[in-house]
Amino acid sequence: MLPLVVNAQYVRDLSFENPNAPASLMNAQQPKVDLQVDVQARNVAENVHEVALNIRAEASHEGRTAFIVELSYAGIFSMPPMPLDQTRAVLLIEAPRLLFPFARSIVSDAVRDGGFPPLMLQPLDFVDLYRRQVLASEKPEDMAQA
């Protein structure tokens, strides 16, 4: 078991838009939802890192936006020194895995409070997201500050 300590969790930024209300609220059909997820990590002190889980969901119906919700949910994590590749994996897989249930609840509540049925995000595969991020960057120095 990794000695990863969660020191704090917080909403960094939260936005909900309902640009076509009230018409968007009168549609009984399920909108199409485009979901984007990104994880960022940065060093804030020796062996202390901030990890931000960024979620953006845009729902549309017949080409019109029903709602847009954006959340940046972050945590401060402490962990012992370890090799860079292990640090990256812990910060970009394990840390967001711990943050996700809280972020999921915030997104669901924001959508519900905006007048729509709650948006229930399915569990995310952070290992796959990490692999895609690493393949996209192909530059180990990008996370040297992690």
From TrEMBL:
Q: Does the keyword Transport apply?
A: yes
Q: SUPFAM superfamilies, per this entry?
A: SecB-like
Task: Give the signal peptide range.
Answer: none
User: Which UniProt keywords are given for this protein, alphabetically ordered?
Assistant: Chaperone, Cytoplasm, Protein transport, Translocation, Transport
Q: Name one GO molecular function term.
A: unfolded protein binding
Q: Where in the cell is it found?
A: Cytoplasm
GO biological processes: protein folding; protein tetramerization; protein transport
| The protein's role, per its UniProt record | One of the proteins required for the normal export of preproteins out of the cell cytoplasm. It is a molecular chaperone that binds to a subset of precursor proteins, maintaining them in a translocation-competent state. It also specifically binds to its receptor SecA.
Family label:
Belongs to the SecB family.
Its name, as the record gives it, is Protein-export protein SecB
Gene giving rise to this polypeptide: secB
